[in-house]
């Protein structure tokens, strides 16, 4: 019955400070979002106490009658949401989902083909220090230098040359849609599995605002906490009964022990939200916000300051600002926006001349602000603050203070978690 504040004032203080940071700044990290309080309530429940190795109806522990219902609800909701036949909702994260899906289909040493990390791919798509780069032989495809779009001719060419066992379509930093049908054609031609990692754009797919990879891929993985707006976690979707069995045994006992049933309950709640009309409306505002931002960063004043936009715009929830011609590098630009109260991450742009730790880009996403209620007018204001900041020198305190005031006004206009004044009570 002891509250967190009483039991551990130190940790409580830091959580409270983080709540205030989230409330008083503008979160524009493209992979982040704000989970509803009901999702956090499920995640903070007694389910954290329960062991439930196995799957609903087939557990290795007693007392699973309630968690069985919860996990089955999560499975039923996510399969309905994405029109998939089978789902595994146990992966602890997106990386775990990818590790399990690959382990089910591949042997160590097999070749995988994914988007190069420097061109927007994810660590789990073959980075050399990641399990994917250590276990598998990695081939990569890239975006074209002129239009920054994935070069499907290169995908086909490298696939024919390297004969991968698995082709990965998906990204962490790419502002356009992928041609899943063409990826599948290439996979079929060379006898590879097609795996789509929709971690970033799953919410847009759920809302019908982005083509679905599920009919095309042998397996689709995702996180549940980015555009999808749920608790941190992963899922694996498929349409083939034999493959689905392999994915299940690859997650447990292959990769994980006991599932996090408190997180699975929170996933179930989030999947219910994702099927509602309000969710689709929010994803629409997410896309609109990204388009407004791209347009603002392409205006003459920004271009004159050396700011550009990768691929000349966006079809998704993020914009990649291209600072290759700007005196600011990615690190300086990230710090400048932090100073005015906007949180983003620096990111390499394709063909980046600066080293990765500094980089020449910013990845700027709109999902969290859309969840906060931002509309076209508010996105226009935040886009103008960002565009102005990127033309300001870091020592111009007066200009940066004025931008910080505009950010404060937006944060106040769109309150976040207004009832969570004292976390846990
Ligand atoms: N896949 C993609 C495309 C991602 O962008 C990410 C996270 O950034 C992941 C997988 C990994 O997810 P997690 O951080 O939950 O392991």
From TrEMBL:
Question: What GO CC terms are in its UniProt record?
Answer: cytosol
Residues carrying N6-(pyridoxal phosphate)lysine: 226
Name of this chain's protein: Serine hydroxymethyltransferase
Please tell me whether the keyword Methyltransferase is annotated for this protein: yes
Q: Which Pfam families does the entry link to?
A: SHMT
Q: Name the InterPro entries for this protein.
A: PyrdxlP-dep_Trfase (IPR015424), PyrdxlP-dep_Trfase_major (IPR015421), PyrdxlP-dep_Trfase_small (IPR015422), Ser_HO-MeTrfase (IPR001085), Ser_HO-MeTrfase-like (IPR049943), Ser_HO-MeTrfase_PLP_BS (IPR019798), SHMT-like_dom (IPR039429)
Pathway in which the depicted protein is active:
One-carbon metabolism; tetrahydrofolate interconversion; Amino-acid biosynthesis; glycine biosynthesis; glycine from L-serine: step 1/1
**Localisation per UniProt entry:** Cytoplasm
